[in-house]
Amino acid sequence: MSVSLTDRPFEPGALVTAFCAGREETGAVATFVGLARAEKGRATVLELEAYPGFTEAAIGEIVDAAMRRFGLQDVVIVHRVGRIAPGEAIVFVATAAGHRREAFEACDFLMDYLKSRAPFWKKEHGPGGVRWIEPTDRDRTDATRWDQE
Amino acid sequence: MSVSLTDRPFEPGALVTAFCAGREETGAVATFVGLARAEKGRATVLELEAYPGFTEAAIGEIVDAAMRRFGLQDVVIVHRVGRIAPGEAIVFVATAAGHRREAFEACDFLMDYLKSRAPFWKKEHGPGGVRWIEPTDRDRTDATRWDQE
Amino acid sequence: MARVLLFGRLADQAGWRDRRIEADDLAGLRAALAAADPELGEALAGPGVQVAVDKVLVRGEAVLTAGAEVAFLPPMSGG
Amino acid sequence: MARVLLFGRLADQAGWRDRRIEADDLAGLRAALAAADPELGEALAGPGVQVAVDKVLVRGEAVLTAGAEVAFLPPMSGG
Question: Taxonomically, which superkingdom (chains C, D) (predicted)?
Answer without folding.
Answer: Bacteria
